[in-house]
Amino acid sequence: MAGVIIALISGALMSIQGVLNTEVTKNTSMWVSNSWVQFSALAVCLAAWAVNGRPSFSDLLKVEPRYMLLGGVIGAFITLTVIQSMDSLGPARAVMLIVISQLAVAYVMELFGLLGVERQAFQWRKLVGMLVAIAGVVLFKWEK
Asked: What's the rounded Cα separation, in Å, for the pair 144 and 141?
């Protein structure tokens, strides 16, 4: 149950963050806004690290394969694409498409066991669920 609550909080925070970042971008620029997002996240993470026992950063050198360290780089592009999509589509449409994309990519990663994810067997109900979600986006976007 805790995982469900945390996931719901995560989704809510991502939507709120996207709207905030889009507004900051309107008053600055894409890369100034993105830099602020990443810098402020770094500051919060360093503060949490200082309070939570200070495990060694040298442990990062032990991470294999090395491409696993690209999360921060991808994070910068996530911020960029969320800002752009929310600006052009509005928060609700952008978030629906973002979630559908997340679901599709996560399912493909599970099916093929990509990036260290444990491989899962194909299930029709998951594919149908994704198609229902896509149909929901179409219905949400549909105008008379």
From this structure: 10
Residues 82 and 95 in one domain: no
Let me know whether 26 and 76 are in one domain.
Answer: yes
Read off the pLDDT of residues 57-68 as tens digits, 9 standing for 90 and up.
999 999 999 999
Domain that holds residue 117: 91-144
- CA 87/CA 23 separation, integer angstroms: 9
CA distance 58 to 55: 9
pTM of the predicted model as reported, rounded to 2 decimal places: 0.85
Q: Tokens 């925070």 sit at which residue?
A: 13
Whether 3 and 65 map to the same domain: the answer is yes
Burial call 57-94: b when 16+ CB within 10 Å, e when fewer: eeeeeeeeeeeeeeeeeeeeebbbebbebbbeeebeeb
Whether residues 111 and 99 share a domain: the answer is yes
